[in-house]
Amino acid sequence: MPDPIEVRKIPIESVTDASGLARLIDGGVLDADRVLAVVGKTEGNGGVNDYTRLLADRAFREVLIAKGTRTADEVARVPLVWSGGTDGVLSPHATVFATVDPATAPASDEPRLSVGVAMSDVILPEDIGRPAMVETVAAGVREAMKTAGIDDPADVHYVQTKTPLLTLDTINDAKSRGRDVVTEDTLTSMDISNSTTALGIAVALGEIEAPSAERIHKDLSLYSSVASCSSGVELDRAQIVVVGNVRGIGGRYRAGHGVMKDALDADGVWDAIRSAGLDLPERPRTSDLGDRLVNVFIKCEADPGGSVRGRRNIMLDDSDVHWHRQIKACVGGVAASVTGDPAVFVSVAAVHQGPSGGGTVAAIADLG
Asked: Which residue ranges are recorded for the region named RU C (predicted)?
């Protein structure tokens, strides 16, 4: 049985701020050596050259090194998954997952939060967007499930990943070895890396059969209901964080999930919160949550049909502001209107992550 989990959301007050993590460690809430993973939003442009992800990564790892006993190499293997871009009301923040001594956690026979992490094998640039990447990610997800003590895929409610995208350097590397890549548009490769990873998660959890190359990033009927995939230039393999529930592990927290059917589907967010174990009225309000919701984690996508609920929008035709930023701001506003807190995790590029034009929603609740 893995150790129980403590999970906390902390603000990020500047691009290099990790003081919230330091305070949790100094206050005895978390042990630096027990931090398993961090999932956070940074304030950059969310694109290929978003340096704020790198700055946050360095700041948080420096705290873990300074306040713990792990070496720099050991801390480098801790998954820190940063999603860039806090458009609209979204606020920079991080959610920190750590194990705690079982003797200090409330005992319970009910399902309680468990987290497993894994680093996949190296993903070569020529494999991004292709079946080889699907297979690599699926193997990593299965490994992370084992470390979380989760046997049944139905007990997995959220899989957060960070994978490599294509840059000019990695494209040239592939070409130097006589290989081609799925695209030479580096921003497009972000979407493709995310979607391919989502299919790997879906395969690992038995949601779909392994897809052929022709269906990757094209067949929108294929998706995972729990995948949340991000990509960047910081790494050359998949960082995988599997979040689910295990009976008997103990602790205060529980995970749940749902899907947003479209960009305005606030009910999908409420469904995820209910799935995490909170008893809510039929038509809930933000005030019904109290302080029991830790965070929600949402993927979003501009509907490829260019409309929401029958009304046309111009996100996909806008040459001034990329649709990534527009849909993120929109869904961030919907999510914050539910939670009452702008520090919610909303990430874009959701192909194969929830239904087309919508996205996955995970929630973590504090059951006390």
From this structure: 253-368
